[in-house]
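Bump. Still looking for 2-amino-4-hydroxy-6-hydroxymethyldihydropteridine pyrophosphokinase structure tokens.
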Amino acid sequence: MPKVYLGLGTNLGNKPDNLTQAIKLINEKIGKVISQSSFYETAPWGFTSDNDFLNAAAEVETSYSPLEVLRLTQEIERTLGRATKSVNGTYCDRLIDIDLLMYDNCIVKTPELTLPHPLMTERDFVMLPLIEIAGNEIHPLFGKPLKELSPKSNE
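Sorry for the wait, here they are.
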């Protein structure tokens, strides 16, 4: 069964509960959550806010295609109260954000979805939780283990 890696973030409301509820819904609607990271507190990235984020990553076995997983993650975001998506690199506070980071070793480039996530290796708030659960997984484009691609590992 394919494995999908998801990045989760929240900076509004009860942040631990937001992540816990998102992971519960992922398990119910997308597939079995076989691993989840610790929760990481991080500063906002790409915009200014007084609200720090709580981030996590999850590894999920799914029978759905990448585009179906995208549709389901967006449905979960709406269920948990997210009303708007970031557009053209303009970010804002949010109750929940679920990003598809990788789907097995697939490379996808469509108007709706790019896999692996094109900015994931530039973001410690994505890479640190992901490395915790999948550090030895090989990045499909770079051909290196994820633990070698984190910005912090390059300092």
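Helices lie at 15-29, 66-79, 124-134.

Edit: fixed formatting.
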